[in-house]
Amino acid sequence: MKTLLKNVTGICVLLFVVLAGQAQDWPGWRGKNRDAKVDNFIAPGKWPDGLKKIWEVKVGLGDASVSRVGGKLYLLTEQDGQHVALCINPDTGKEIWKTPLHPSIALEGGGASHPGPRTTPEVQNGKVYTLGTGGELFCLDAGTGKIIWKNLAYKEVPKFYPSMSPLIVDGMCFAHLNGHDNGTIVAFNADNGTIIWELKGEPATYASPVLMTVDGEEIMVFQTETDVIGLSKKGDLLWKIPTPGEQRFYNSATPVIDGRNVIVCGQGIGTKSFKIEKTGNTWSTSENWHNSELGGNYNTPVLNDGFLYGHEARMGKAYCIDTKNGELAWSDDNSNHRFMATLNLGDHILSMSANGKILIFEANSEKYNEAAVYNVSDTEVYATPLVTGTEIYVKSKEMLTRWEIK
């Protein structure tokens, strides 16, 4: 019996090592499906007291998150007054290529306190797509960094500058460009940058679009400053739901897709769930529920086994909502930060706080159960971390750091 147990234990350890070593592609904002789900993470039996720092490199200014595809990291930053695209070796932190893109525009107002780009590169089909603070859209070769095409025509920007990450679907690159007054959703040919169609009059904000499928039909879901809208890939407006933000707070949370339901949240909005349906050629929406008390401001919640985990707008307190009815399952009493970036690790939830701390708690709908807290940066962190296997990549004000759970 002891021999059997020893063999089983050895197999489990080996399985953990093998699975943890299989790096998951994370092609852009919130991963492959933009749902922040990390597929290959396996929680340790006992959480360590601290994380092991593998390497740390200075990459430049910005709040853009890092992407990973084919064993390479991709990042958009600002160096010496220029936006630059970077490709980095995840094993060593060494630069594979660097491509200067364009001079950075001078930032004004509240946005000036966050120098550098905010948008996560989208890596698809051997190409890297980036969006700069001045609305500059670039497409580069993922292997060499060579610029394939660019578009600099949409020069108006939202008040706090673009943070939307382009969406690539069926050979098209979709981006919400210009500003609050003249927002324009544009479909580009992803290979050469030719404009396929434009939809004008939708005020731009800071959320990234997502893709959902209803009755076999793909719909692109955009959160604008005033509404959440569904578009066909041809640019037809299928439906529109009013979601105005509160006072000076703008919509920045990415819509969460739950089958045929769209969940939106924000300060002043709370959290709402809508059902999307089609009868014949007519689309309709209906509200499933509305939790007016809880709504993230500068963070997007994650969906895990029928429950929504996130952080409320004012104090960053963790919460859990039952998506069947919108009722609060639990709310933690501890305050965090209004800026929280949340990932779904399966059995656990990871939240990166802007104060440089990683918070890990159980995906438990019964109660809040904290597993670990790690300090990973002495400067503020506004980028969403990248987690694959046992690796955690954190982009702080100027540094990119690889941490390991050991």
Structure description:
With 406 residues, the protein is mostly beta strands. It has a domain at 64-162 and 165-204: Beta Barrel (Lipocalin), CATH 2.40.128.630. It contains one helix and 32 strands. The chain has one helix spanning 2-21, and strands spanning 52-58, 67-69, 72-79, 82-88, 95-103, 122-124, 127-131, 137-141, 147-151, 167-169, 172-177, 184-189, 195-200, 210-214, 217-223, 227-231, 237-242, 256-258, 261-266, 270-279, 282-291, 302-304, 307-311, 318-322, 328-331, 340-344, 348-353, 357-362, 370-375, 386-388, 391-395, 399-404. The strands form eight sheets. Strands 1-32-31-30 form a four-stranded antiparallel β-sheet, with no helix packed on it. The longest helix has 20 residues, at 2-21. The model is unreliable at 1-21 (pLDDT under 50).
Q: Count all strands and give the number.
A: 32
The 3D shape can be described as globular
Main beta sheet: strand number and arrangement?
4 strands, antiparallel
Structural class computed from helices and strand pairing? mainly beta
What CATH first level of one domain would be assigned?
Mainly Beta
CATH topology of one domain: Lipocalin
Strand order of the largest sheet: 1-32-31-30
Rg, alpha carbons: 21 Å
By CATH, the architecture of one domain is named: Beta Barrel
Arithmetic mean of pLDDT: 92
Proportion in helices: under 10%
Organism: Maribellus comscasis
InterPro entries: PQQ_b-propeller_rpt, PQQ_rpt_dom, Quinoprotein_ADH-like_sf, WD40/YVTN_repeat-like_dom_sf
Protein name: PQQ-binding-like beta-propeller repeat protein
